[in-house]
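Hi L., both proteins are below.
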Amino acid sequence: RDPEQTTMTNQDALNAAVAAMTGSQSLYDVTIICTTDDHQAEYWMKRLSEGLCKSSDDAALHFPMVLAVSEDWGAGGAGNGLGTLYAFQKATKLAKEKYNVDLAHLLAQGEISAALYHTAGKGTRMAPLPASENNNKPGVKLPVCHNVNGTYQPITVLEAVVKQTGVYAASRKGRLSVYWGDQIFVPSASYDMEPTHHIDIMCTLLGDTAPTAQEWEAQGLEKYGVIAVLKGDERNAAQVEKVSHATAVEMLQSLGEIAQVGPSLGSFSVSAAMLQALSEEFAKELAEKTEKLDTDPHFWMPLTLSAKDYAALMKQKGIDEDVSLAHHARITAMKDKFDFGDLGLFGAVNVGSDACWWDYGQLKLYSKNNINLLEAGQDADLLRKFFAIDDKKQNSVLDGVTVDDTSCVFASKIQGGTITESALAVVTSPHVEADGAIIVNCTAKKIVAGKGSILYNLIDTSDEGIVAAPGEVIVAVNDESGDSMLLKSHMDIDGGKAWKIKLDMNEMSFEDVRNKNMDANITVIEAKRNEAFEKAASSF
């Protein structure tokens, strides 16, 4: 194929996907958010229902519906396998109580589509940003605004993910789709497809043929969970995890010949029938709430690999062979009595090797992908289209301030200063000096932000204002009383490695702040922060 034609085709596919995400209300009929606690669940029910998932059809009775539930599980969590089943179970109960809607029945009848977003987790690599949202990691704001109930507010990471993944909703009636809440992507492969398997996994299939041993090594596939699509019209697939090319071929030879492979993205969808079968099989674990099971090692691999190969892989994880063989036998018994109908067991959904990705799960990536808003090129153009940025100074009053052509300044009121190569959202100040900085939801008499710095949720009424050195990260952490403390870091600091360490610049470690934030009423805190923001901003 002509390389120029290939590029055009991929570009057209990417543009079509973004248009589908932004052109109309592309949403699942039911959006389920799995949170850390009940306060977060309450927050997301309200925010999404009044904003991104607000019905555009006055005649629609209940849909789109938002159901947010907490994972009240034993120590260590449920894992994403049991966690998915439990969140759906809780959402089904909530839908019945709140709307008198039988979610499981409507899904089984193919009348609705449903998506579940896992948002729990400490967010250590994003520190200190999640601390400023009182552990509400998916509530971390981006320097881009959208309309929420009549006001322009920074879009959160989760809202961006819900907006992006909705492109798959139309083709997934009768299925539960499961996503993780810290990255968005634009597929270069088709997003509108008829499901062919009871379980399908999103992945990036590499090339049109199976890789050689040299290609497997060059692409680093031994480091990932890999989806292997087998030859044949059914395009059945299997999952292997962190194995060499030779091991993969040996394990899969009993299933068939490999046609294509690619790293798994983790996100998946299951039919209503498979969801019910898994929920029934693990009913005891769901009732006791102590076991931890993940999808890849405990569901997909025993479903698609032989007992011998599954036990060998799990042995690498330190799991005793007898335990693995017993679990495989249990999953096989469930599979043997399952009615497959017209669908296969396990398949792949290819997002395309030219898909565009924006990950916000690490502080460095948060910085990189937000600064990407300012840059030139196909990737940045797509990002701006996704966020519907047709004016880099949307809803802002910028009289007297010098702003260069690349900077983005949204929903802000700034009277003087100079802004270059920076991304700002909801900033009110008489004077801002920003160079290569990200400033979100801040107000002060004066703001000075050096290159690579991040200022977040800051309210300052001092004459000195806010000053951030190059690479410095400063956030505010509020509590329910309205009190606030500063928490700092630097772009060179890995929050995961420094999680338990009290940095010299702070009064507490990131872990201590998280523990202090546990079960914080984020709805109350956000209301008080907004009130304090308005009071300070109006005084300048």
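That was the first. Here is the second:
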Amino acid sequence: GQLTAKWTTRMSPLHRHVGAFVLLVHCVLAFENSTPSWSSAAFSFPGNVVHANGAHRSVLAGRRGPRPNYADVNAGSEGQVLGQQSAGVLLLAPLLLIGYQSRKLGRSRRMPETQRRNAAASGTSANPASAGAAATWKGAKAKPLAFCLALGLLIRFGLPVPTGVTPQAWSMLSIFVATISGIVTEPLPAPGVALCGLTLGVLTGTLTFAQGMASFTDEVIWLVVLAFFFARGFAKTGLGDRIAFNVVRAVGGTTLGLAYGLNAAEAIVAAGMPSSAARAAGIFYPIADSVAKASGSDPAQGTEKKTGRFLVQSAFQATGNSASLWLTGAAQNMLVLRLASQIGYDMPSPFKTWLVACSVPALVAMALTPLLAFKLLPPEVKQTPEAPEAARAKLSAMGPMSRDELVMALTLLGMVTLWAGASVFHIPPVVTALLGLCTLMLFGTVTWADCVNEKGAWTTFTWFAILVGMSAMLNKLGIVKWLASTISSRIVSLGLTAGPAFVVLSIMYTAAHYLFASQVAHVGALYQPFAV
């Protein structure tokens, strides 16, 4: 998003979010692809899918049975009134986050453009008065820290504990909300925030150390870590670049064809490169950027409208679409798999089931997004004969396919085969991933030093595991069920049927994403309440 911004600074908010319309189509098609009638509810968002109907049937479900009616509560009881009041105030937490983040954004926008760029490039504060303090203080940022602590204390001590919710569960909720707020506002890096939340939970007796650290042995968490190592292998060998350049060489003669070619290339690479950030920033943004500049489109010269604005925006939207196509397309997909299992949705063949459920909406989104971007951001240059030539030159410079590229390609092909046939081969997905990593290390394609230096993997591993552990405790202590029952009762009181309720929940979930800098944090915080 930050890389895309320089190409879109002169765009309207509507143009910046050309994927919003495609997202709606994505949701509706997921609904139609998985359920036969409006008697069911389906939720499909970029990177995760869950479907549930009156028989509690789901593509993520391994169980069947009557769907629990969480709305059947004593409407006249004092406990429900207190519960609804507490839930209502909890809904203000996102608004507080919006206000806090908007205030930061407003201060940033009031800075001169050159000052912001210089600050971003140097990694220092754009405010000269605070530069000296920032140089000496390396600890937590005071204001976001105070905000997170205040929010947690408000929930724990300022709101009444609803009937049916234990004080321990309420404390767990307050710590979880404060931790998520910290991940969003960043008083410390995300692992530091997560460790502080875990320490507070253990210190107050809200959870034990073993409960807080239980997810560090979780198979899905290790799948996420291993995904970073495979992304490193893609970047190190240049296999991703070779795939993309071959596609550009084949269909890059027009601007629209080039956009579709980049979309197709990312869809292929996403199957074996489970880091959407690494794909976008490490492979496809540099290609779109270089092709645009080769055609005379450069934001520094005010010519971004020629081809660059359209190409970069199309490539940016393609990342979300490709991430939703494959279970291995993004880290948050694997988190969905774990969170779903915590509430009873088990998938015996996750890779195949995910692909069947998401193929239609994801592929339709891939087909529509470039057309929508072409309409909203029409490029001034429609023909790009220089793009195939540039791709040929890049491929010529790369030379023939190297041994490491071949090893990487065959390893990933074998992994995808084992993932797709997990129900036949009876090999767990994490074992397949470990087998792939061992193969790459045995051939020297990826070394252990590469794994150690992949700081993003270990950073994500730390806060990801703690967040999953906290969410498991929320479910175990009944908070997820309480939130679901409260939301369900509100929907029932409004008289909404399944179809309108689906639209309302989809809008709520999508709008809430703007509060989170990380899709993993978004899924970890909201997936279970919306799924239940």
